[in-house]
Design goal:
Blueprint (H helix, E strand, L loop, with lengths): L14 H30 L6 H23 L4 H23 L30 H18 L3 H7 L2
Helix pairs in contact: 1-2, 1-4, 2-3, 3-4
Length: 160
């Protein structure tokens, strides 16, 4: 079998080539779960978001729309639209976790001096999983997924 007639799931395909088709649905699902989860916490559970939570929401919510359009259009270039928001959201999430766990004092920054402190512990599942950690995990999954996403043409050129 030649490279032109090779089946898409042939053993010659690398793991990256096989996973490439699943990265966009994965990041879309992660953005959707994070968005619905944050809305559930605030609108159903009544948890008032702190200022850094709002900044993370500003970075997360548009990703659902961006990835939905990319999925519908089969747009392999979605990483270019979503990666800046994901990276900036990841940076905010890292900073929020540093404040939440006391590595950076909350009083040293002016961001967290609103009615709800950024160190408010609404819950901790299993004794350690917090809302800031959930955001950090979501932005990490999305950022890594987008970083490893490559347009189909990259793999097509490699087989020529």
């Amino acid at each position: 079998m030649t490279a032109e007639t090779e089946a898409p799931t042939s053993p010659a395909m690398t793991l990256g080539e096989r996973l490439r088709g699943w990265l966009l649905p994965l990041v879309w699902l992660q953005a959707l779960v994070a968005t619905v989860g944050s809305l559930y916490f605030s609108e159903v559970m009544g948890y008032v978001p702190c200022n850094m939570c709002w900044y993370q929401r500003i970075m997360m919510y548009p990703l659902v729309a961006i990835f939905t359009v990319a999925l519908l259009r089969r747009d392999d270039m979605a990483r270019h639209y979503g990666l800046p928001l994901a990276v900036f959201g990841l940076a905010i999430a890292i900073f929020h976790n540093l404040v939440y766990y006391g590595v950076i004092a909350e009083g040293q920054i002016g961001i967290c001096l609103a009615s709800v402190p950024c160190t408010t512990r609404w819950f901790e599942w299993l004794g350690f999983i917090s809302i800031p950690q959930l955001s950090l995990i979501a932005f990490t999954v999305i950022t890594l997924g987008l970083a490893f996403m490559r347009p189909a043409s990259v793999f097509e050129d490699a087989t020529d």
